[in-house]
Amino acid sequence: MGRRLPIRLLTWDVKDTLLRFRHPVGEEYASKARARGLEVEAAALGQAFTQAYRTQSRSFPNYGLSQGLTSRRWWLDVVLQTFYLAGVRDAQAVAPIADQLYEDFSKPCTWQLLEGAEATLRGCRKRGLRLAVVSNFDRRLEDILTGLGLREHFDFVLTSEAAGWPKPDPRIFHEALRLAQVEPAGAAHIGDSYLCDYKGAQDVGMHSFLLFGPEPLDSAIKCSVPQERLLPSLSHLLPALDRLEGSALEL
Fold first, then answer.
1. Angle at 55 between CA 51 and CA 113, to 5 degrees
2. At CA 38, angle to CA 33 and CA 39, rounded to 5?
3. Residue 157 pLDDT grade (very low, low, confident, very high; cuts 50, 70, 90)
4. CA–CA separation, 142 vs 23, rounded Å?
5. From CA 227, how far away is CA 240, in angstroms rounded?
6. What is the dihedral of CA 26, 54, 61, 189, to 10 degrees?
7. pLDDT band for position 248 (50/70/90)?
8. How would DSSP label each residue in the chain?
9. pLDDT tens for residues 175-201?
10. I need a surface site. Which of 73, 110, 113, 114 has the fewest CB within 10 A?
């Protein structure tokens, strides 16, 4: 068996891995609507958003870029459909709310760091590891990361909008490896989605780690991911990397 390459590059998912919404989507939408005299229940908007987002993602994957949409138009349509499903049929009344929400979700104050995010990134860099982002996000991500003080940690930020392919498409991972000039075996990816992050990276030959929160993991996923690749929190990453490097030395 050939010697396993040492890890040189860590690629990161962002949403629900490093950042999360400061407030639930339904509350954000309801607050902006209320400011314009429109009363809609936050719970109804939250449920409607989930449905609208899933439908839009199926009909127009990766922000509909290959179908002539822009990411901004894609998101504005999601907001319009969310309010429609929540019972608001007046698109003219919702249009300025949609514009405001798009701008607000571009601002760092709408987001918060997951516990341990900053310390983990600093710890990785202290070890001499190169860091990069591979995220199914749109063009707003660079400014969000800069505003939250995280952009400086990464060699580059590769979004699915910029790459043209969303995770788990292998091409976005291959593009990240090309930009970093690192072989798959010398890279690891960290994210919270089994399909997009863990499996997507693994399928191109990268190492991968699955971050999960307080909710119980799906039993099928738990059975298919080795215990040493499961991260209950970001603070577990550095010890997991130590174990990975240690197993490489034993080969």
1. 65
2. 95
3. very high
4. 21
5. 10
6. 80
7. low
8. -PPPPPP-EEEE--BTTTEEESS-HHHHHHHHHHHTT----HHHHHHHHHHHHHHHHHHSGGGGGGGT--HHHHHHHHHHHHHHHTT---HHHHHHHHHHHHHHTTSGGGEEEPTTHHHHHHHHHHTT-EEEEEES--TTHHHHHHHTT-GGG-SEEEEHHHHS--TT-HHHHHHHHHHHT--GGGEEEEES-IIIIIIHHHTTT-EEEEE--SSPPPHHHHHHS-GGGEESSGGGHHHHHHHHHHHHHH-
9. 999 999 999 999 999 999 999 999 999
10. 73
Which pLDDT tens digit goes with each residue over 2-25?
446 799 999 999 999 999 999 999
Positive or negative, the Cα torsion across 50, 57, 154, 121? Answer: positive
In the chain, the amino acid numbered 49 is F
CA-nearest of 79, 52, 60, 142 to 106 is: 142
As a residue count, the chain comes to: 251
Give exposure, 180-204, as e/b (b: 16+ Cβ within 10 Å). Answer: bebebbbbbbbbbbbebbbbbbbeb
* CA-closest candidate to residue 74, choices 91, 55, 87: 55
